Amino acid sequence: MESSIEFSTSPTTNSQPTRYRFFKIVVIGDSGVGKTCLAYRFCAGRFPNKTEATIGVDFRERIIDIEGEKIKVQLWDTAGQERFRKSMVQQYYRSVHAIVLVFDVSNPASFRSLPLWLDECRRNALGQEVPRILVGNKCDLVQGSSNWGGVNSEQVQRFAEAHGMPFYLTSAKGPEGQGDHVEAIFVSLAHRLKRQRTLLASHTPQSEALQSFMLPSKKSTEKEKWACGC
Ligand SMILES: Nc1nc2c(ncn2[C@@H]2O[C@H](COP(=O)(O)OP(=O)(O)OP(=O)(O)O)[C@@H](O)[C@H]2O)c(=O)[nH]1
After folding, report:
1. Would the CB of 74 count as within 6 Å of ligand 1?
2. According to its record, how does it sit in the membrane (predicted)?
């Protein structure tokens, strides 16, 4: 992870931009599992009226307050279709802070693809220090059942444990306010990242920490250009 993108700026009404620490979270998984809907639900607070297959990547951001600090959660909603992602894959994984791996609980094939997605992470040199979480989306379609068309919840739990990932079952479409898992999933990931970064900083010699804080943030400027507010 490169520390030069740890902070990003947002314009304010006066001339001083506000500086936020930000976390780049990349959402991956098969096409149609609901990555866009999850990202939209977290950033805009509702299920989108309509979605189309993502081409390349869409950016969504939301600023949240964690223990008194404003943190920008930047979600990279990536294309699930191979033909829409191949030229961009390296960009997705560069300086990433966490990965959200999504499958559709009503589509067992999307669960069986997960090892391929983990392979892609490995091929792009993602270190073990980058947390990954597993999200089973569209639970509204399998309500009350723990057997999802050939994949059951224990199998998924075992897979998640074997890869050191917490597993969350949710629905981007679920009724708002009813135990809003989507909100809780991303917020708890941001909490985890903040704790991890604080720990890292406390193990970094002071001069090094200061240097990385002051590095010119070329990458973050590039990202800001692409970022869309929700
Ligand atoms: N029932 C139900 N449908 C959902 C849910 N989340 C997404 N969908 C639907 O699933 C379809 C695909 O959702 P997207 O969010 O576009 O899927 P994606 O993973 O971003 O797809 P790509 O951009 O092709 O990678 C859409 O028709 C959504 O309305 C959910 O939680 N429940």
Report:
1. no
2. Lipid-anchor
